[in-house]
Every structure is written in structure tokens, then in C-alpha cells.
Specification:
Radius of gyration: 35 Å
Distance between the termini: 66 Å
Helix content: 55-70%
Largest sheet: 6 strands, mixed
Number of strands: 10
CATH architecture of the largest domain: Up-down Bundle
Oligomer: single chain
Number of domains: 2
Number of helices: 18
Structural class: alpha/beta
CATH superfamily of the largest domain: ABC transporter type 1, transmembrane domain
Order of helices and strands: HHHHHHHHHEEEHEEHEHHHHEHEEEHH
CATH class of the largest domain: Mainly Alpha
Bound molecules: adenosine-5'-triphosphate, magnesium ion
CATH topology of the largest domain: ABC transporter transmembrane region fold
Strand order of the largest sheet: 6-7-8-3-9-10
């Protein structure tokens, strides 16, 4: 809320002035009534003068109101954008584990809620509470000036309405939080289904997903109905209390007027002012509800996003420039958080000298990709250390570590942007020439050129408009642009035909020169040229040597090799 603070302060000043003048309007009505009450002998110029004051006051109120509205819009839009921005910025720095536990649609919904709630809350604070508060305060002042009894009665009644509204709203908070949570869940599920719509079609599951969504929406409807039901109960009681207040205050006013203690103008003041306050007072409950609803949404969003990072730079994290690319795993233990039974790595120790080319082999699920994720510090080891160029990767800046590693992941990570933007994502300052060269070496230039829009072709969400092999080649081109001492290839060529693979293999080999390389592959022929092959099994290294050595050894590697020949 500190964003554009001056606009915020000015919003309150102008809104306050508008509310005060609005309350002042009733003084004019009081005087006018008293004049009329005096009978026909009032001079018409005095009455006209008073009507003129009334009209000018009304116009001034309107202008003040507009000015405060414009200032509020300026303030709130900045605040809203800022809230969205800081939430998004914070979100992006969460660990890989955070994202694998959460649906992206749900996260998107939460960021949206945070921004929208900021907007709604400020509007309510200014219009629903601040202006009403000023008018109520002035009303009480009028009441006391006219007669103490009316003053006390007003305080008591306004007190009762306020206390009731606050208590009722706090009872609502839980229901509203449930409602916001269910909304996020619903959106998460719907986005997940849309993202996988082809699986839905292919498995003839449209009806099933319809039913699934219908159930989720029905749950959403029920929690919403619950909120609505409580909401209308609160409004009804609020209305009832406001009506009682109207009856008591106006009744007392008429009574004291009959006794000659207050003027007819006072009675008119109370009636007209209460009539305008009536709506706001009745709505106080729902205003508070609305406030609580948005506070709930805001809180829910903030609690989901602004939780401590699982992986963060230490306050004294060293800035380092990794140049050599020596990798050491020292007694590393690791298991995934939600899977306590299955340890992925147990006392894994491994040294990869700078510049060595290592092939990682092992059955599916052996932990090859996990090994790479640990090296990239997408997750932290449970115990043991990983050192790159002698630096414990927990103690250096994550950015410095990742800058040193070019990585072709098992699943292509492509944005719905142009091919050019996707390729140069690893090196934003790359020249067109460099991009073309990298694409050529990644064996991607031919197909890129065959597209009518060439490098300007949009690839679709996660690259759906490209074939599997094309996606991989774009990812390889991206890695080729990155000048880093370490290269990690996780099944980088698995989707290519063997002819294309052989060609790209040559390019990859030249890419590997002078770099420490970890290449994961199921097709063992692609790893023949590596300096060393490491075989993972059950979280342990079971074999370690060159291709020829391991074939001679007639162990696990030999088995795998024999099956593939
Ligand atoms: N995000 C995750 N959360 C929980 N468990 C995971 C996660 N990712 C992988 N696993 C589990 O960790 C184990 C190792 O997975 P990993 O992806 O490292 O295997 P892999 O050797 O790369 O297999 P593949 O050859 O099929 O790619 C598997 O049992 C897998 O189920
Ligand atoms: Mg894998």
C-alpha cells in the first residue's frame, strides 16, 4: 500500500471532505425546514438563497467525490499492479519442488486473487468504512447538539450495529476462505485438463472429465452458497437493526419536538440523514463481509505464495565464476520429500574431473534425472555435499551455478514465443549469426527455414506445434548458444531418428570439447565415445569405466548393451 502513497493520502483527504460536506447538507435542510415552519412571512429571497447553497454544496460534493475517485484509481491501479508483480517475482524464485507440488492454474488464480483483492479492499476501506465513519461521527455530533438522550441512543444503536457486523463477519471468514480455496482448486483442475486435452480425447474421457469438473464445480457451488447464505443472514439482521435505529431516533426526535425541546428542522435533519445512512448502515454487515471475503482471498493467496523458499542463497553466498567444471558428489543422500520409503541416493560419491565426458546409464527410475537436478540445485541434498570447482553448491549463488551449466532437459521447456526467442533464451545477447550457427549445428536450421515464418514462428504452448525431434533440436540449439563449462544432456536426442541422431551427435561432440559433459541416454550407442560411463542401479553406482571396459566386464552395462545390439 506504500505504492504512490501521496495519491492514497490525497484520496482519503478528498473523500473525507466529500463526506463532511455531505453531512453538512443536512444542516441546510434543517434551516430550510425551520424557515418553512415559520410560515408565509419568510422572505422568498432567503429561501432562494438557501436553495442555492444546497445546490452549490451538492455540486461541490460531486466534484470532491470525482477527484477522490480519480486519485483512488491512480493509487489502486498502481497498488494492484505492484501486488501482482511482487507475488509473481516471489513465486518464480520458489524451488522446483514447490512447483511440482502445485497446479499452475491454481497458482495463477492465487496471483490474480491477490491483485483483485487489493483493489476491492481499498475501495471498501474508502467508500464503505472511512466515509461512513465520518458521516456517523457527524450524525452523533448533531444528535448530541440537539438533545443528549438522542445522542446516547444513537451511540448505543450504532455501537450495536457495528459490533454485530464485526462479529457476524468474523464468523464468515472461515467460510470465505474455504470458498477462495475451492476456487483455486477448481481453476487448477480445469487448467490441468485443458493442458492435457489430447489425452482426454484419445482416451475417450471427455464424458469422464465433464463429470469430474461437474463434481468440482458442484463443490464450489456449495461452498459459495454457504457464503451467500451467511451473507444474506447478516444483511437481514443488519437491515432489522438499522430499521430499529431509524424508529427509535425519529420517535425520540418527534417526542422532544412535541415537548418543544428541539425544532422541526432537527426532526427533518434526523429523518433525511438517517434515510441516506440507512442503506450504508444496513450494508455495513455486507461491507464487512466483502472486506473479509477479499481479505480472505488476499490472505489465502499470500499464504500460498509468500512461504519461505526451500532453496535459497545463503546471506553470505559467494559470487563465483565457475570456469573449469569439476564436479564432485561427496556421500550424497537424497529422497523425495513425499516419498520417505524410497531413497533415491545413498552415500553416492563420484568425482568428475574438469573436461571429462561422462555417460550416465541405468534403468528408468534409477535416478539419472534426479542426479542432474541435484547438480543444478533444483533440490537440495539431504546430507553430503556437491562441489563444483571446489565450491559447495549450497554456499554459492544459485545463479552463478546455473550460469555455468548448459542443460538440455528430458522434457523440452519451450515458451509460446518465437523460435528465435526460444533459442536465444540461454544467451539473450546472441547475434542473429550466432543463432543461425547454433541452429545449424543443432541440425535445426533446415526445418526452421521450411516454416513460412522461419525464426519468427510461434511454437505453441510448451512447443506443441513442433514435432518431438524438432523440440529437442531447438533445446540443443539453445544449449549450444550458452558458453558454459558444464554441459548436461538428459536424453537430448531420444526423439530423433538414428540418421539425424548420428549427424547431431557429431555436433554434440564438438560442443562437448573443452566442457565437462554429463550425457544421459538409453540408446547406448550414443555414449560410445564418452570418456567414461557410469551405471546407476538402485541409487548406487554399480559400474564405472569406459565402454570397452564395461563390455568386457560382462556386468549390468554389458546386459543392456547386448539387448540393444
Ligand atoms: N518430483 C518428484 N517427486 C517425487 N518423486 C520423484 C520425482 N521425480 C522423480 N521421482 C522419483 O525418483 C526416482 C528417480 O527418478 P528419475 O527421474 O531420476 O529417474 P531416471 O533415471 O531419470 O529415469 P528415466 O530414465 O525414466 O528418465 C523415481 O522412482 C521417480 O519416481
Ligand atoms: Mg530421467
Amino acid at each position: 500500500m506504500k505504492q504512490k502513497r501521496w495519491a492514497g493520502v490525497a484520496t482519503f483527504i478528498f473523500a473525507g471532505l466529500a463526506a463532511t460536506l455531505q453531512a453538512g447538507l443536512f444542516l441546510v435542510i434543517k434551516n430550510l425546514t425551520n424557515l418553512i415552519n415559520e410560515g408565509n412571512n419568510t422572505s422568498s429571497s432567503v429561501v432562494l438563497h438557501m436553495v442555492g447553497v444546497l445546490v452549490i454544496t451538492m455540486i461541490t460534493i460531486n466534484i470532491l467525490h470525482r477527484v477522490s475517485g480519480v486519485l483512488a484509481a491512480w493509487w489502486v491501479t498502481h497498488m494492484k499492479a505492484f501486488a501482482g508483480e511482487i507475488s509473481f517475482n516471489y513465486l518464480l524464485r520458489h524451488s522446483a519442488g514447490y512447483f511440482s507440488d502445485r497446479l499452475s492454474g491454481k497458482l495463477q488464480n492465487k496471483i490474480n486473487n491477490i491483485a483483485v483483492a487489493m483493489d476491492a479492499l481499498t475501495g471498501k476501506i474508502v467508500e464503505g468504512f472511512f466515509m461512513l465513519f465520518i458521516q456517523l461521527a457527524i450524525f452523533i455530533l448533531y444528535a448530541f447538539v440537539a438533545n443528549k438522550m438522542i445522542g446516547f441512543a444513537s451511540i448505543v444503536l450504532i455501537g450495536v450495529i457495528t459490533v454485530y457486523s464485526v462479529v457476524a463477519a468474523s464468523g464468515l471468514a472461515k467460510a470465505i476462505k474455504r470458498y477462495a480455496k475451492q476456487g483455486a482448486i477448481t481453476q487448477g483442475i480445469i487448467v490441468d485438463i485443458i493442458a492435457n486435452v489430447l489425452a482426454t480425447k484419445q482416451n475417450v474421457a471427455i464424458k469422464k472429465e465433464e463429470k469430474h469438473v461437474q463434481n468440482v464445480l458442484d463443490k464450489y457451488r456449495k461452498v459459495h452458497l454457504n457464503v451467500w447464505w451467511r451473507f444474506s443472514t447478516v444483511s437481514m439482521v443488519g437491515n432489522f437493526l438499522a430499521a430499529i435505529m431509524f424508529g427509535v431516533v425519529v420517535g425520540l426526535a418527534v417526542y422532544y419536538w412535541q415537548l418543544g425541546i428541539i425544532t422541526a428542522g432537527d426532526v427533518m435533519l434526523f429523518i433525511t440523514m438517517l434515510l441516506t445512512l440507512y442503506g450504508n448502515l444496513e450494508a455495513l454487515g455486507s461491507s464487512i463481509n466483502y472486506f473479509v471475503e477479499n481479505k480472505g482471498k488476499l490472505q489465502e493467496g499470500l499464504e500460498a505464495i509468500f512461504i519461505p523458499y526451500e532453496i535459497k542463497d545463503l546471506p553470505n553466498a559467494k559470487k563465483v565464476n565457475i570456469k573449469e567444471g569439476e564436479i564432485i558428489f561427496d556421500c550424497v543422500n537424497f529422497h523425495y520429500k513425499d516419498d520417505k520409503k524410497n531413497t533415491v541416493f545413498q552415500n553416492l560419491s563420484l568425482t568428475i574431473p574438469a573436461g571429462q565426458k561422462v555417460g550416465l546409464v541405468g534403468e528408468s527410475g534409477a535416478g539419472k534425472s534426479t542426479f542432474v537436478s541435484l547438480l543444478l540445485r533444483f533440490m537440495d541434498v539431504e546430507s553430503g555435499t556437491i562441489r563444483v570447482d571446489g565450491h559447495n553448491i549450497k554456499k554459492i549463488k544459485q545463479d552463478d551455478l546455473r550460469r555455468a551449466i548448459a542443460y538440455v532437459p528430458q522434457e523440452a521447456l519451450l515458451f509460446h514465443r518465437t523460435l528465435e526467442e526460444n533459442i536465444k533464451y540461454s544467451h539473450p545477447r546472441a547475434t542473429k549469426k550466432e543463432i543461425i550457427l547454433a541452429s545449424k549445428r543443432a541440425y535445426a536450421l533446415d526445418f526452421i527455414k521450411s516454416f513460412p515464418k522461419g525464426f519468427k514462428t510461434l511454437v505453441g504452448e510448451r512447443g506443441v506445434k513442433l514435432s518431438g525431434g524438432q523440440k529437442q533440436r531447438v533445446m540443443i540449439a539453445r544449449a549450444m548458444l550458452k558458453k558454459s563449462p558444464i554441459l548436461v544432456l538428459d536424453e537430448a536426442t531420444s526423439a530423433l531418428d538414428s540418421q539425424a541422431e548420428r549427424k547431431i551427435q557429431k555436433a554434440l561432440e564438438s560442443l562437448m570439447e573443452d566442457r565437462t559433459t554429463i550425457a544421459i541416454a538409453h540408446r547406448l550407442s550414443t555414449l560410445k565415445q564418452m570418456d567414461r560411463i557410469i551405471v546407476f542401479d538402485g541409487g548406487k553406482i554399480v559400474e564405472d569405466g569406459t565402454h570397452d571396459e564395461l563390455v568386457k566386464k560382462k556386468g549390468k552395462y554389458y546386459q543392456l548393451w547386448k539387448w540393444q545390439k
